[in-house]
Fold:
Amino acid sequence: MTEPASIVAVVAVTVATVVIGARGVRVSRTPEDFLVAARRVPPTLNASAISGEYLSAASFLGIAGLAMLDGLGALWYAVGYAAGYLVLLAAVAAPLRRFGAYTIPDFAEGRLNSPILRRAGTVMVLVICGFYLLPQLKGAGLTLQEALGGSYWVGVVVLGVVVTGVISSGGMKGITFVQAFQYWLKLTAIAVPALVLLMVVHHPPLTSIEGTTTPTFHRITKVEFPDAEFVTLATPTTVRVDGVIGGVSHDGVVTLDATDYRVSAHSVLTFPAGSRVPTVTSGAVLTASQWESPLVRLNGKLIHPLAATYGIVLATFLGAIGLPHILVRFYTNRDGPAARKTTALVLLLLACFYVFPAMFAVLGRLDAPQLYTTGQTDSVVLVLPRLATFGPWGTLLAALTAAGAFAAFLSTSSGLMISMAGALSHDLLGQGVKAFRLSAVGAGVVATVLGLLVGGIAINVLVGWAFAIAASSFCPLLLLGIWWAGLTWQGALCGLALGGGASSAAVVATMVGAGRTGWPAVLLGEPAIWTVPLAFITMIGVSLLTRSSVPPDVTRKLLALHLPERIRLSDQVVDG
Amino acid sequence: MTDVVRPEGVAREVIRSPERRVPAVPNSPAADDLYEQDEYARTLLRSLIRAQLAVTLSVLIPAAALLCLYPLLAVLFPALGRATVAGVPLTLLVLGGGIYPPLVILGFWYVRRTERMEHRFVDLLESHD
Structure:
């Protein structure tokens, strides 16, 4: 379907991004300004920018869709995404800023005097950012497909070109303003529709989804089936059928028994008010008490739910510290205390945002249960405003959520692209604005081409992958590097390789279909639960075995990490 | 921890903060020189880092307990997962909003305590100079 209002909204967001980004260009001139925005970004602006950069396709679309489909337990993703900033605040923010290294490879080399570790860190940056970038491109493809009715590749290419253009021309000063703007846009774009739908639209009370019942259509509901589907009716229902059901073509009212029917593609069933939502074979509809469980489901089933839940909590709680595009922002804080204030504000801003995906999940279950039947719960944030309200208001609110979704892809992919281009230019092409621009264009082209290929992989799988790998690699490197004098470069390198390698291997195995049930499903699908401890144990164990490699100036390095700015050190600390 | 030895002649490019090179208190000895020469200063600097770790853990341990306890209780007492408060599922109240205020409060509490602690240590060290 073509939605002109949504297209206008997406174009407006894109133009605003380019204009605000370009406005920043005038302020940034030297190469250093270009990369770290001259380190003079005040905490409130910086906190908005970090939140804007952080809230991605997974937060804006994925959480609401997953919680609607798999139950409220999926909200653990949101809780973990926010709570990760508490770890960042209390264990990483101020020391990293005081140390003065502005990327993780810089930190690795500066803290442990090892160029090899630096290169390993650069590889991990490219892996984590790359896998985080693909779902953003995919989300953009789907959003434009929804709005334009065109092909998937349009959105991917548009996002790739816009982001590459902004990054290679604007640098990071421009991006700071863009990101700060994007946070408030995203908050507005999810909060206003959620509150309007909650208060203005009449919907059944929450108590109507209690007990062992599945959802009901509370008004006459048209369900279009994009693909052929087997549906199961719980009770005999009189529906209007336009299309083919059970091999027979209909154009009128039919009474269906409580049994299975094959519905052909493009058929439209119109259910009366009060009838039960049919279940489809491609995904069971949960009963109310199943849906309300605070435990995480894998493939729609409770498989060792406590371990699966802890797996997600661990990956998201610890993964946020290891995200390269977020950490680079801490260098734009004036000093350690400013870095702390910024992080605490980010935690507050994220907590405010994550209330609304939860609202959308509940409203989706109450007002748009047909999404279960058509398997389109992931687009609940985009389509609910149109399904639940009629006339111009629904169109307007849908345009707002489309704009917010596109803002989410734009901002997160910009941050990821800066990190990738920074790592590439610094370690491969040499410093300077020209090398940075060249790297940005290179990374942009490669990512866009790969983005065209991942149309079939779920957004949440890829984002979850990035978090689990970050939690199993950079998280132990940073925590041990900052707080433990005994870390050696050999320990850090083995931990990075084993933790990052094992978590990547586990998720690849899940994606190719290994481990659908039992413990393998949990251990491969939520690898953080074992790869995080593995990485920590490896780093500590190997460091203890290679004690002689502890940097001789480790004391000075720890002082550089932890001393307040008012106390000075005699000379340079990070380099030799 | 061993003596501070800086390797000579190793030139690596690491971008770092220029502010660090500007002495905040022009005529006082640098912290790392004090660390080498002065037993009292060494004790003070070591206890500063230890105190920072203590504040960090005093925030992260309660937060981790908060996150881990709820799923555990839901497994031990399945009724908890089905409980409602005034018609709203308890899970929605907790995961959809209720869990955030304690986390945010822990965050701002950490900022305040760690700032005060650092001020106290810096004052002690400067009065010692």
User: Anything to note?
Assistant: The beta strands of chain A are 221-224, 229-232, 237-245, 248-256, 260-263, 268-271, 279-280. Chain A touches chain B through 86 residues (CB under 8 Å). Confidence is low (pLDDT under 50) at residues 26-34, 572-576 of chain A.
